[in-house]
Write a structure and sequence with these properties.
Order of helices and strands: HHHHHHHHHHEEHHH
Number of helices: 13
Distance between the termini: 51 Å
Number of strands: 2
Structural class: mainly alpha
Radius of gyration: 21 Å
Bound molecules: fe (ii) ion
Strand order of the largest sheet: 1-2
Shape: globular
Strand content: under 5%
């Protein structure tokens, strides 16, 4: 999940009879499957939770460009380079749709960036891991974009209109990313011994961090009942994680690669795979800033922001000049 630590401020859902008439009408609209639009009345907590969720998601798209951007100059063929460039560019687009969706809730892009740079807003823990070999481009597309899709497909039905519509477009591109990643893995898994070893090593390193993308286990999960009632969270973390494992396990078998979990086995009774949970201590360390690449990623974002100051200044000056000319006419 790209917004894995979104804390809903409402611990439990307020009973309908305790809601004010306005709040009740709002909840009824959501229950009927209506979309909430920017100018509609909404509870302050709904607005705040959405800003946090969409903001985290937008930041994840932008920071997520960094681990893969690292390999553009070293892609093994011209075709691979063109594909990777297009993918990284898509992620920038996803960030832009999402920042725009967040802005409709009354927060500015400058404020969102400021919160990211000051560490007040998070991005997905997965992007704090390094990309060591070309096979990581395969593993990221296959697993990381795969986990993102798992979470984002249901969000196309989320209650906030601008967010749901952004998701429709994003999901189309994410599924292309996943196929591209799988294709890299397939080529490497069927290649030389060294290539196969690299593919296996990438799977070993990215498996558990990918499972962490869905957020903490439901039993330790921060309050999500209110977010579910508001339809800004559509499934529980464990539900989505299980779906992901069930989808990826046969794909790994097809690739001839081993998922690094000796306890991963098909369970006839449940109709799902049993699997080992990731190391949640590691997850909380990474999310709180102590992952292998947290500092590097945030420094890169701050540098990009500072280096781009002259462009923003120039555009603002141009807009002001244009507005003044209009007044003078
Ligand atoms: Fe994306
Ligand atoms: Fe993607």
């Amino acid at each position: 999940m790209y917004a894995q630590m979104v804390k809903s401020t409402g611990e439990t859902v307020v009973a309908k009879e305790k809601l004010s008439p306005k709040e009740r009408e709002f909840q009824d609209r959501i229950d009927r499957g209506e979309k909430i639009e920017p100018k509609d009345w909404m509870p302050e907590e709904y607005r705040k939770n959405l800003i946090r969720q969409i903001g985290q998601h937008a930041h994840s798209e932008i920071v997520g460009q960094l681990p893969e951007g690292n390999w553009i100059t070293r892609a093994p063929t011209l075709e691979r380079k063109a594909n990777l460039l297009a993918k990284v560019q898509d992620e920038a687009g996803h960030g832009l749709y999402l920042y725009c969706a967040a802005e409709t809730l009354g927060v500015s892009r400058d404020e969102l960036f400021d919160m990211l740079h000051k560490g007040k807003m998070k991005y997905s823990s997965i992007f704090n891991y390094p990309t060591l070999t070309w096979a990581d481009m395969g593993a990221i597309g296959w697993l990381v974009d795969g986990a993102a899709i798992m979470n984002q497909v249901p969000l196309q039905r989320t209650s906030y209109g601008p967010y749901a519509r952004a998701m429709v477009r994003i999901c189309k591109e994410e599924s292309f990313h996943q196929r591209q990643g799988f294709q890299i893995m397939l080529t490497m898994a069927q290649g030389t011994e060294d290539q196969k070893r690299m593919a296996q090593d990438a799977l070993n390193r990215f498996w558990y961090p990918s499972l962490m993308m869905f957020g903490p286990s439901d039993k330790d999960s921060v309050h999500s009942a209110q977010s579910m009632a508001w339809k800004i969270k559509m499934n529980s973390n464990d539900e989505l994680r299980q779906k992901f494992v069930d989808e990826i396990a046969p794909q790994a078998a097809f690739l001839g690669l081993n998922i690094p979990d000796d306890d991963l086995v098909w369970n006839e009774k449940t109709g799902h795979h049993d699997y080992s949970e990731p190391d949640w201590d590691e997850f909380f360390q990474v999310i709180s800033g102590n992952g292998p690449c947290n500092k590097e990623r945030l420094d890169a974002r701050k540098k990009a922001w500072n280096d781009g100051a002259w462009v923003r200044d120039g555009m603002l000056a141009h807009a002001r000049k244009k507005a003044m000319r209009k007044v003078a006419e």
